[in-house]
Design a protein that fits this description.
By secondary structure, the chain is an alpha+beta fold. Helix content is 25%, strand content 34%. The chain contains eight helices and 15 strands. It has helices spanning 22-32, 63-67, 103-111, 134-139, 178-189, 214-218, 222-228, 232-238, and strands at residues 10-16, 38-40, 49-56, 71-79, 81-83, 92-95, 115-119, 128-129, 132-133, 149-162, 165-172, 193-203, 206-207, 212-213, 230-231. The strands form three sheets. Strands 1, 2, 3, 4, 7, 10, 11, 12, 13, 14 and 15 form an eleven-stranded mixed β-sheet that branches. The protein has a two-stranded antiparallel ribbon with strand order 5-6. The chain has a two-stranded antiparallel ribbon with strand order 8-9. A hairpin with an 8-residue loop joins strand 5 (81-83) and strand 6. The longest helix has 12 residues, at 178-189. The radius of gyration is 19 Å and the shape is globular.
């Protein structure tokens, strides 16, 4: 017997702006549309932008599967400057001259990171150790040992280089810290680097082109918001799960 689903059971695709946390986005939508149950599938750092899948009602049952999907990101890396968080939000750790580099040099360096590899999460991250997020320890100057995790990078390629900024696209498995790759590439090239900007453009079968800007979503009426919801059965098909 087919289970009944509410029109609000499913997901909505949001294009997150820089600034709010992923939780902030969920909380604002929950309050604006009186959602009893809502969550997101994959955290974006506050200054990262792009695709955020917001699961609603029974759609939250699919969050783990949707979160495990591969991701595609676009962004920029600034060479010559290293930060403690590996991105533009961190404190400057070192500044070195950027050697003469071509686009080909960058892509040769990036190619070395493609394939399977073990990656250690940065201290400034939401990964928890004994129930405490690493970033909270980092704020207190505490550094602890982190377990390396297996990730896979399908593609890491630069399309343009305007010294000291490189424009890249990366396709990878869930849990990949792109800012850690940016940091490691800077170390490999001998000048240091940090992630300047990041935008998630694809998650599984979903594309940011089909997402609604966060500010626009908040202006919708309840009925218009409901019309943007991907129904549970369609979402389950995307997640390759039985709609049971």
């Amino acid at each position: 017997m087919m289970r009944d689903f509410d029109p609000m059971d499913g997901a909505i695709l949001i294009d997150k702006p820089a600034g709010p946390t992923s939780h902030d986005v969920v909380d604002a939508l929950r309050r604006a549309f009186r959602l009893e149950k809502a969550g997101h599938c994959g955290t974006l750092d506050p200054n990262a932008t792009g695709l955020l899948i917001i699961v609603l009602g029974k759609g939250t049952k699919l969050s783990e599967k949707l979160m495990s999907d591969d991701k595609v990101y676009e962004g920029t890396i600034k060479f010559g400057e290293t930060t403690d968080s590996f991105d533009a939000d961190g404190e400057l750790v070192s500044s070195l001259p950027v050697p003469p580099m071509t686009l080909e040099d960058l892509n040769e360096g990036a190619a070395a990171f493609q394939g399977d590899q073990m990656q250690t999460p940065p201290m400034v991250s939401a990964v928890k150790v004994k129930g405490v997020p690493l970033y909270k320890m980092a704020r207190k100057g505490i550094e602890v040992e982190r377990k390396a995790r297996l990730i896979h990078v399908y593609l890491f390629r630069f399309s343009k280089y305007e010294e000291p900024i490189g424009f890249f696209r990366i396709a990878c498995t869930k849990g990949t810290y792109v800012r850690a790759l940016a940091h490691e590439l800077g170390q490999k090239l001998g000048c240091g680097a940090h992630l300047a900007t990041l935008r998630r453009v694809v998650s599984g079968r979903f594309d940011v082109q089909d997402a609604l800007p966060f500010e626009d979503a908040l202006k919708l009426s309840s009925s218009a918001f409901q019309q943007r919801v991907i129904p549970f059965l369609k979402l389950a098909a995307h997640a390759s799960l039985p709609p049971g």
